[in-house]
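User: Sequence recovery, please. Input:
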């Protein structure tokens, strides 16, 4: 996704240069994230976000990416 830099290189959507190549990602606060399923695929983001409303965070450490999918470069290099 243009403009989104991410260093989570074991994510399926991570690309060399620390680029996120997902079409869409879902970021929410940790409290909300804990109530949701583990992850939302990029294809699911549009439908879920319309039902969520706003979820403010106190600090940057209160936020997380719910589009993370295990399976990036580190996973692939391990076989
Ligand atoms: S989906 Fe989230 S965790 Fe995965 S590369 Fe993109 S921003 Fe990073």
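Assistant: Recovered sequence (79 residues):
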């Amino acid at each position: 996704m243009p403009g989104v830099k991410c260093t989570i290189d074991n994510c399926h959507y991570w690309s060399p240069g620390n680029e996120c190549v997902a079409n869409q990602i879902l970021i929410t606060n940790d409290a909300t994230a804990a109530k949701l399923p583990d992850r939302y695929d990029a294809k699911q983001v549009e439908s879920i976000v319309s039902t969520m409303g706003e979820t403010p965070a106190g600090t940057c450490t209160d936020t997380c990416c719910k589009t993370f999918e295990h399976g990036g470069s580190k996973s692939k290099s391990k076989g």
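The longest helix spans residues 45-52.
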